[in-house]
Amino acid sequence: MTATRTTGARANQQALQRAIREYILDERLSSGVPMPPEQVLMERFGVSRHPLREAMKALEAVGIVDIRHGSGTFVGIGSLTALREGLEFRAALSLNGDLLAARELLQVRRLLESGLAGEVLARRDELDMPALRSAVSRMERAAADGDYEASADWTFHRLLYEPIGNGLILELLEVFWSVFHRLDDRLPQGSATPEVIAGWHADILAAIDAADRDHMARAVAAHFDGISQRLG
């Protein structure tokens, strides 16, 4: 009986969350717009305060609403937090087994970044070249001391794709990058020493400086071949 009630409550909660999402879309509410007061929503969906607040907390976790204590609840922007956590957990689990999920995730990232290489060169004049060089220099200086400069690594990748002007691409790349960064200590190093990693990025930068599409393709491939080697 208890299990049945639990299952029913879960189904009701999922239905309420779905109804709130549909309400936002049907009403054509934009990101940042305030949601109606609790009492209005309770009457609209025929629920009490507790299940409504539970639903809002669940929707906040995935960025559908933004709860600002003292100000109210607003329409969110749709976060990739849940995707990041799910992929990280999936990849971490695979480290205890055949590493398949980690390799699949790397393949998706590789396809995305390799496919964008041409776009990067097409927008070469919009790239912040001094900042890219600074990121590579930071990696090289850290590598000279045997250290890997993770923040400079992500900065380099972010700066490469910012001129494309697609926020979703940047969010996805940040998800993929952060997942592998969090798993880094659990992966075998292989030949990917800090010096080698800095060299991958320096070679990509050289290809951009030369505006050489073939060189760019080889440099990006070498970067991902190195990561792939760590996954066997």
From TrEMBL:
Keywords: DNA-binding, Transcription, Transcription regulation. Residues 10-78 form the HTH gntR-type domain. GO terms for molecular function: DNA binding; DNA-binding transcription factor activity. InterPro entries: GntR_C, TF_FadR/GntR_C, Tscrpt_reg_HTH_GntR, WH-like_DNA-bd_sf, WH_DNA-bd_sf. The keyword NADP does not apply. It comes from the Bacteria. Pfam families: FCD, GntR. SUPFAM superfamilies: GntR ligand-binding domain-like (SSF48008), Winged helix' DNA-binding domain (SSF46785). PANTHER family: TRANSCRIPTIONAL REGULATOR, GNTR FAMILY, UXU OPERON TRANSCRIPTIONAL REGULATOR. This is FCD domain-containing protein. It comes from Nakamurella alba.
